[in-house]
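Hey, can you fold this?
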Amino acid sequence: MMKHIPIFFTFDNNYVVPAAVAFYSLLNRAGRDIFYEMHVLHHDISDENIKLLQSVVGRFKNAILEFHDTAGFLSDEFNSGSFSSGHAGSRFTADTILRCFAARFFPQYDKIIYSDVDVVFMDDISEIYDIDLRGKYIAGVRGPFMKYVADELSHLKPEHFEMLHDTYIAGGIWVMNLKKIRADNLESRMLEIVHDDTIIKRFNDQDIMNIACENHVAFLPLNYISYPYLLDLLRKPDFISHYSRDEMFDSIINPKILHFAASKPWNGTPQHADTWWNIFEYLKLPRTSIFRDVPDENVKKYKKYKRLFNIVLCVLAAVIVIAVLGVIL
């Protein structure tokens, strides 16, 4: 008997190619008895890109994919409100905050998984759907850098910082208790935060959810957001975290999800980028504007092998000439 699990994503046209990689890896790693009901909340994904993503999901028999145009919900607030871009290199859009309002868009579900698309799923993740959410609004991965990065939560009001400095959950992957969110009318609280320009939303969706939930959260293991750059931090003698070193190393050695939260494979060179590129090349996906800072890896490989080939040819030619001359002489 198939187990049906709803999961949704929020992104725009720019992130369709990363989404294709994420979708393929999710379904390729899914257990045989898992059926994903996949949804995309958006306001501008083109018909062409919808067909591209449908073709990726259509390779599998254990999923359906539906698109929901949100008609610009909260776009005006996002463009005029107290939202910012987080860390350098972060890119937030109005679609980012849609994920906070899943209870509105999915009335048919009592619980749902949310995932970013700058990820590669390395294992079946279906077990997190069964996490105990009684009394909790959401389950997520506790941010591992709050003790080390001094300004990680410095944008929060003092009362919010005091409440969240040890329990702030990151984005990337959430399990949302839509039934409790509706029962407690949490959407009203989230809308208050969206409209309150005295609350700086540096990390957009994360700040909204963490402040609104007021620590009514459950925690997922760090393996569900395995940061490729975490190993570099662990090499620093002064690095500290809420997680033990064993937990952090386990997230690197046994990742459930690789989350390219900082440097992206398509415009940088993070560790494990080859895993992302392998899927990209296998699916024969198009290079879009977000790839503009990345040299074509295939061209680089071709030039490298062409140089080696030419060197080998020259050596062979020299050997042949010497041999011929030896015979003549």
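Oh, and this one too while you're at it.
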Amino acid sequence: MRIIAIANQKGGCGKTTTAVNLAAAIAHRGLRTLIVDLDPQAHSTIGLGLNPDRLTKTLHDVLTNPQTDFMQVIADTNIETLKLAPCNILLAGAELELTLVFGREFVLGEKLTQVSDQFDVCIIDCPPSLGMLTLNALVASTDIVVPVQAHYYAMEGLKQLLETVSIIRERFHPCSVRILGLLLTFVEHRTTLSKQVQNQMREFFGDLVFKTVVHRTVRLAEAPSAGESVITYDPRGTGATEYLALADEILNGTTRAAQEEDKQDTEDDDTQAEQAKETEYGGQE
């Protein structure tokens, strides 16, 4: 199961919007998809039509009670191939409870192994912080998508997040999480500022910025109030088209992170071939 965290410690950058609609887009492409709502605000849960206050079992139980199986909390959505692991405000208490647990950074990753054969892709909606919940998500994940609002202030927090990912890769084993890409969100069609920020992002981060950008649209903002993703709420609209394009960009492996991984695999194969060749010649001598 591929695990993709949607993370950025800055609030208001479109994390939940991206988590819900990217998960729905991937499910729409036919892959068995799980979205994990790891934000105590429970916006992904609400955005997919569930009432957090009426839930009897949530992600909080999964993380804090060893007896709770992950499958016990998974709920259906209006897309057959999309399932949700919901939460409510109780999840805020898990941040403190996890600090008392040995191996606390690995709790979510270990729990996700219980459902790894049930899903092809897991999308994690992270809270707007770099606390214990987000750390669990990053350690458990294979990839990170970073939504970035097309605004100057939005770029300030990127350095801290990139440094955090680097530290996680060094300190926690096995963990090979990588930045899959930066997603520009709330892009305005006509404003000069939005175009300037886009240009600066692409100049500085290059191919790490997704080709797909997400524009600010009314339908995209309306969809959560209907308890749906924009993929089902307005399937022919701009929002649905853009998130489907993002899903294709990720699934087809056209991101820079995927290209670098392929390059590394090729280099490893070449190294193994050279070693085998040297061993063969050595044996003949």
